[in-house]
Design goal:
Blueprint (H helix, E strand, L loop, with lengths): L5 H19 L4 H23 L3 H22 L4 H27 L6 H22 L7 H19 L7 H27 L5 H21 L11
C-alpha cells in the first residue's frame, strides 16, 4: 500500500508533519490555517482518483470526508461555542456517513463472524459507557451532545469491526485502526476541553485525527468485497 501510492503518501506525510509543527508552535498560525484544510482535501482527491467513486461505499466515504472538511474549518474559526457546536455536528454527520458505508460491507454477509461481532459490541459498549460516565460530571450543558457523539463514535468502531471476513484483510485492518484512531482523537479532545488541559494536546489530537482519516481513506481505496451484494 505504501509503495503503491508513494507520491500521495509522500505528500500526505509533508502535510502531516507541517500540521503537527503548527500545533506545536502556536506562532505558526498561518501555516496551521493552510495545512489543516489540506488534510481532507488531499484525501478527497486520493479517494476520487483511486476509486472513481464507483458504488455507494466510496460515495459515502467521500461525503463523510466533505463533512469532516466542514468540521475542520468550523473548529479553526476560534473558541466560539457556536462554531464548536457546528463543528461537532459536522463530524457527527461524518461519522454517520462512515457507519452507513461500513454497514454496506456488513450487510453483504451478515451471518459471518458472529463471535467477533459479539466481542466488538461488548468492547464498544464498555468503552462508550465507561468513558461517558467518566467525563459526565465535567460536561454541564454539553452532556446530551457528548452522549450522542460518544454513541455514534462507538458505533462507528463497532461497524468497522463488523467488516471482518467480508472484505480483504488490508482494507479491514486499515479501516478498523482508522476508527480506533478516531476514537483516540475524540477522547483526547473531550478530555482536554472538558476535564483537564494538558501540554501539546493539539499535537496528539491532530496526529490521531490525521492517522484516522488517512487509514479510513486508504482502506476504502484498497477495499475488495469478498461477499458481494449486487451494485454495492
Amino acid at each position: 500500500m505504501l509503495k503503491k501510492h508513494l507520491k500521495f503518501n509522500t505528500l500526505f506525510a509533508v502535510i502531516f508533519i507541517l500540521q503537527l509543527l503548527s500545533e506545536y508552535n502556536h506562532e505558526l498560525i498561518r501555516l496551521k490555517y493552510t495545512t489543516k484544510p489540506l488534510i481532507v482535501l488531499s484525501l478527497l482527491l486520493m479517494l476520487t482518483v483511486g476509486t472513481r467513486l464507483k458504488g455507494r461505499f466510496h460515495k459515502r466515504i467521500f461525503t463523510g470526508l466533505l463533512f469532516a472538511l466542514a468540521g475542520d474549518i468550523l473548529l479553526m474559526l476560534g473558541d466560539n461555542p457556536a462554531y464548536f457546536m457546528y463543528g461537532l455536528g459536522a463530524f457527527l454527520i461524518c461519522h454517520i456517513c462512515y457507519i452507513s458505508a461500513f454497514y454496506l460491507d456488513f450487510r453483504s454477509a451478515p451471518e459471518l463472524d458472529k463471535k467477533g461481532a459479539r466481542i466488538a459490541i461488548l468492547m464498544c459498549a464498555f468503552f462508550g459507557i465507561g468513558f461517558y460516565f467518566y467525563i459526565r460530571p465535567h460536561l454541564g450543558p454539553m452532556r446530551l451532545p457528548v452522549l450522542a457523539y460518544t454513541f455514534v463514535i462507538s458505533l462507528m468502531m463497532m461497524m468497522a469491526a463488523f467488516r471482518n471476513l467480508r472484505v480483504n484483510r488490508s482494507s479491514f485492518l486499515f479501516i478498523l485502526f482508522g476508527a480506533i484512531c478516531f476514537l483516540v482523537s475524540d477522547a483526547l479532545l473531550a478530555l482536554n476541553k472538558f476535564v483537564i488541559q494538558f501540554d501539546y494536546a493539539g499535537v496528539f489530537i491532530m496526529a490521531a485525527y490525521m492517522a484516522a482519516q488517512y487509514l479510513i481513506t486508504m482502506g476504502a481505496v484498497d477495499r475488495k468485497l469478498i461477499n458481494l451484494y449486487p451494485k454495492q
